[in-house]
C-alpha cells in the first residue's frame, strides 16, 4: 500500500511535468502540495474498498478492471476537491493525463506484485469432504474460478476422519462441504490444527449462525451470544439517511441517461416505458418495483412467472443492452427514495418465487429482515446465475457482517461488475457440470471412499 501510494504521487508529479515541462508553475505546485494529503487519503480508501490488496481470488483481468475504475473514481474525487477551494485547484488537463499515467504505472506494479505472490505462495491443494451432491457443487465452484490459488486434488465421500488422516500429507486445505457428525468434525479440526493445515467450512445455516458473535463475561464464565440476522436500529437510521441522499444524487446525475433510455424503450416496442412488478421487501411487505421495460408486454402470458435465463428470448434488442449495462434498474432509485428499497441489500424476489423458496429453505425469511436493495453482496461476490440457496447465504452474510464500510465497498464493487459479463447473465440451468465420480477422475482428482 505504501509503495502504491508513492507510485501514485509520482504519477501525479509526472503528469504535471508532461503538462508543463520541467518548470511547473508555482501556483499549480502549491495546489499540489496543499492537497496531497487529502488526495492520498482518498486514493488509499478507494484502493481498500475495491479490494486491491486481497490477492487470493484475483486474476490479471481483475487488476486491470480495478486499476482503471479505481483511477476513474480517484479522478472524480480530485475534481470534487477542486470545489473545496482554490488552494485545492488541479488543472483538468493534469487530472486527465494522470488518469492514463496512473493506470499504466499502477497496473504494471500490481502485475509484478501479483506474479510475485503467485510464485511465492503457489497453489494450495484442496481436499473436499462431504456428500456427493455438495462435493460436486464445491468442485464446480473451485474449477470455475479465475484464480489458480486453490486446486482441488482430493475428494472424500465417506469415512471422513480416517481418509483425511491417511491423505493429509498430500493436501494443504480441507474443505468441509457437508454437515457431518459434530464429533467427527472436531476430530478432523484437531488433526488439522496439530499438522498446521487449514480448515474451510461451507456457509450452511449452522455455520452462519456463529458469524460475528458477541462475547459476554458473567462472573467466572465467558459466554458467546449469537448475533441476530438483523441490522442494529442505529445503523438502520444512518443507512436510511444515506439511501435518501445518495438516491437523490444519482437521480439528478442519471436523469439524461434515463431520458434517453425512456425514448429508446418507447420507440423500440409497444407497451409502457416502465415495467411494474410486485416484489417482496423488509418484513415481507409487497411493493411495486420500477424498471425500464426490457421484454415484450406478453413475455409471461403463456409461461407464467419464470426466472430470467442467459440469452433470454423474451428480451427485446434494446432491453438486452439496458440489462447488460444495468440501465433498466435506474428507476429503482425512486423505490429507494420512497422507502421500499435500499441502495444495498438483498435483491427483491416476486411473491410467487418467495413462497417456493420458503418451502425449500425454512430460513429464507431472514433475508426480509432488511430492505431489498438495488445491488447487494450476492451480486458483487457471487454470480447472478447462482441458485437461490447460494444467494441466500450471501444475503445472510451481508446482514451478519453489515457496516457502513461494507455498503460503500459493495457500491464501488458494483461499478466493477458492470463490465463483467458473467455477473449480468441470467440463471443457467446447466451451470454445474460435475455429475459423476468419473468426471472427477478425468480432471485428475483423487476420489476416496
From TrEMBL:
Ranges annotated as spanning the membrane: 35-56, 63-89, 95-117, 244-265
Ranges of residues in domain Bacterial sugar transferase: 239-419
Recorded topology in the membrane: Multi-pass membrane protein
GO cellular component entries: membrane
Transferase as UniProt keyword: yes
Location relative to the cell: Membrane
Keywords per UniProt: Membrane, Transferase, Transmembrane, Transmembrane helix
Gene Ontology MF terms in the entry: phosphotransferase activity, for other substituted phosphate groups
Pfam families, alphabetized: Bac_transf
NCBIfam families linked: EPS_sugtrans
Family: Belongs to the bacterial sugar transferase family.
Protein name: Sugar transferase
Source organism per UniProt: Jeotgalibaca ciconiae
Amino acid at each position: 500500500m505504501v509503495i502504491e501510494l508513492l507510485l501514485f504521487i509520482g504519477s501525479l508529479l509526472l503528469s504535471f511535468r508532461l503538462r508543463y515541462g520541467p518548470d511547473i508553475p508555482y501556483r499549480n505546485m502549491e495546489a499540489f502540495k496543499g492537497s496531497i494529503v487529502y488526495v492520498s487519503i482518498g486514493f488509499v480508501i478507494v484502493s481498500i474498498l475495491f479490494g486491491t490488496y486481497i490477492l487470493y481470488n484475483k486474476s490479471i483481468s481483475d487488476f486491470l478492471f480495478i486499476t482503471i475504475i479505481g483511477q476513474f473514481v480517484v479522478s472524480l474525487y480530485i475534481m470534487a476537491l477542486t470545489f473545496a477551494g482554490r488552494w485545492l485547484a488541479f488543472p483538468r488537463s493534469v487530472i486527465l493525463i494522470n488518469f492514463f499515467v496512473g493506470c499504466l504505472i499502477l497496473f504494471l506494479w500490481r502485475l509484478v506484485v501479483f506474479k510475485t505472490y503467485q510464485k511465492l505462495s503457489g497453489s494450495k491443494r484442496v481436499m473436499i469432504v462431504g456428500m456427493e451432491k455438495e462435493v460436486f457443487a464445491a468442485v464446480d465452484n473451485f474449477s470455475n474460478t479465475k484464480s489458480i490459488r486453490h486446486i482441488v486434488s482430493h475428494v472424500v465421500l465417506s469415512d471422513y476422519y480416517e481418509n483425511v488422516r491417511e491423505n493429509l500429507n498430500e493436501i494443504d486445505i480441507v474443505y468441509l462441504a457437508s454437515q457431518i457428525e459434530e464429533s467427527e468434525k472436531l476430530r478432523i479440526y484437531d488433526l488439522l490444527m496439530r499438522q498446521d493445515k487449514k480448515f474451510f467450512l461451507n456457509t450452511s445455516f449452522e455455520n452462519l449462525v456463529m458469524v460475528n458473535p458477541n462475547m459476554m463475561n458473567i462472573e467466572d464464565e465467558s459466554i458467546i451470544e449469537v448475533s441476530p440476522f438483523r441490522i442494529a436500529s442505529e445503523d438502520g437510521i444512518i443507512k436510511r439517511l444515506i439511501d435518501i441522499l445518495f438516491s437523490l444524487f444519482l437521480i439528478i446525475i442519471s436523469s439524461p441517461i434515463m431520458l434517453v433510455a425512456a425514448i429508446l424503450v418507447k420507440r423500440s416496442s409497444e407497451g409502457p416505458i416502465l415495467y411494474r412488478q410486485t416484489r417482496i421487501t423488509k418484513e415481507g411487505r409487497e411493493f411495486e418495483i420500477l424498471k425500464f421495460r426490457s421484454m415484450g408486454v406478453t413475455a409471461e402470458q403463456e409461461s407464467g412467472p419464470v426466472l430470467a435465463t442467459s440469452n433470454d428470448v423474451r428480451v427485446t434488442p434494446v432491453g438486452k443492452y439496458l440489462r447488460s449495462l444495468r440501465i433498466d434498474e435506474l428507476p429503482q432509485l425512486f423505490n429507494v427514495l420512497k422507502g421500499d428499497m435500499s441502495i444495498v441489500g438483498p435483491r427483491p424476489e416476486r411473491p410467487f418465487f418467495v413462497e417456493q423458496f420458503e418451502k425449500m429453505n425454512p430460513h429464507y425469511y431472514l433475508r426480509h429482515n432488511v430492505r431489498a436493495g438495488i445491488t447487494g453482496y450476492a451480486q458483487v461476490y457471487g454470480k447472478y446465475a447462482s441458485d437461490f440457496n447460494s444467494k441466500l447465504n450471501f444475503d445472510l452474510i451481508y446482514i451478519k457482517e453489515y457496516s457502513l464500510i461494507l455498503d460503500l465497498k459493495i457500491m464501488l464493487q458494483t461499478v466493477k461488475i458492470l463490465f463483467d459479463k458473467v455477473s449480468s447473465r441470467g440463471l443457467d440451468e446447466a451451470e454445474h457440470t460435475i455429475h459423476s465420480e468419473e468426471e472427477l477422475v478425468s480432471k485428475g482428482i483423487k476420489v476416496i471412499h
